[in-house]
Amino acid sequence: MEQIQPHNTPSMKRANETSIYKLMAVGIVIAVIGVYLRFAGDSMTLSLVSWAILFIGAFIACKGVFKILAS
Predict the structure, then answer these.
(1) Which pLDDT value is given to residue 11?
(2) How many CB atoms lie within 10 A of CB 52?
(3) Is residue 26 a contact partner of residue 60, using CB atoms and an 8 Å limit?
(4) Mind telling me which residue stretches traverse the membrane in this protein (predicted)?
């Protein structure tokens, strides 16, 4: 029979920290702002800035995901 692990292990507690989910939410909001700016204007400068903001937001969100996976 399969043995069930308890949900109060240190790795589960680390994975359920609210700071990780706040980090992911901030990253998603920044990425959404980058996507909005990507379609808001037609200048080359705004396009480059919006791509940079989008990738920064995606990087922050991925950082939160990898913190959960590493727990």
Answers:
(1) 81
(2) 12
(3) yes
(4) 20-39, 45-66
